[in-house]
Design brief:
Layout: H1 3-13, E1 17-21, H2 43-50, E2 56-60, H3 65-71, E3 78-81, E4 86-89, E5 92-95, H4 103-117, E6 124-127, E7 131-135, H5 142-160, E8 163-167, E9 170-174, H6 181-192, E10 196-201, H7 207-215, E11 219-223, H8 230-233, E12 238-240, H9 243-256
Parallel strand pairs: 1-2, 1-10, 2-3, 10-11, 11-12
Antiparallel strand pairs: 3-4, 4-5, 6-7, 7-9, 8-9
Helix pairs in contact: 2-9, 4-5, 6-7
């Protein structure tokens, strides 16, 4: 039995099973323009059906919850944004209390990065609510763009006490909290009393969630893609050849799972 089939069998076998996924690079292809990311056609319907068959279906993304709500608001699917620092609740966006003291620092760093980089060709500063990211995937010379971005990011780290996290042609400034996708996934598991969980990701920010899933006796789903970091490509588990291949696996999973009689 291959790894992808093993995960599918586990989700079918355990009554209290959950599927948690990143958005970009997993359910949506990586785009040069981050604001243009969209679910692959038909994926929303698949997720909605899976949410009636599994105990939990959730998105756990570095994107703000407001972005997820605009691009992937699917009935029954939980939305956790900013690496788990915020989630969409019944009364709106809920932010973990520890994050509030760092919101001013993020806002100031965001304004400064816009001031220095908004005129740079191919460099995009992305406002992420509780974080800020600088992308240079669209830069005509990515190496030169990275050389321009790096000292500015370093300056923001020193000036505002934020933490730099690397990604694929992106540098992200986050709050220096002991919170990441791993701790967020642990909360999802505990809150929903899951007996098994599978987590799907594609980038460095997903490594803590992969580790948490493995430590919980769960499963890792790695969606491969161009420019993937070596540390991610080496993760043990089921590997997929891009978001379209992963979507095909979701279709098979949905077809195989019976509908739950109650939620």
């Amino acid at each position: 039995m291959d790894a992808a089939t093993e995960v599918m069998q586990a989700l079918m076998t355990h009554e209290d099973a959950g599927l948690v996924m990143d958005f970009d690079g997993v359910l949506s292809p990586i785009t040069d323009d981050p604001s243009a990311s969209e679910l692959l056609p038909g994926t929303g319907q698949i997720l909605a059906e899976l949410a009636t068959k599994l105990s939990v279906v959730a998105l756990l993304s570095g994107r703000p919850v407001e972005f997820l709500a605009a691009h992937a608001c699917v009935p029954g699917v939980e939305l956790h944004g900013s690496y788990g620092l915020e989630r969409l609740g019944a009364d709106g966006v809920e932010v973990v209390p520890e994050a509030r003291q760092w919101m001013t620092a993020v806002e100031e760093a965001t304004r400064a990065l816009h001031r220095y980089l908004d005129d740079a060709e191919g460099i995009h500063v992305e406002d992420k609510s509780l974080a800020v990211a600088v992308h240079w995937r669209r830069a005509p010379d990515r190496d030169e763009a990275e050389r321009r971005v790096t000292p500015l990011v370093r300056e923001m780290v020193a000036a505002h006490g934020l933490r730099r996290e690397p990604g694929k042609f992106v540098a992200e400034l986050r709050m220096p909290l002991d919170q990441d996708k791993g701790t967020a996934l642990r909360r999802i598991i505990d809150t929903n009393e899951l007996r098994t969980v599978a987590y799907a990701g594609d980038d460095l920010g997903d490594l803590p969630a992969f580790a948490t899933a493995t430590a919980a006796g769960g499963y890792t789903l790695v969606v491969d893609g161009p420019g993937m970091a070596q540390g991610v490509s080496a993760v043990a588990g089921a590997h997929f050849d891009g978001p379209a291949d992963f979507r095909a696996w979701l279709v098979h999973l949905n077809d195989a799972l019976p509908r739950r009689s109650t939620r």
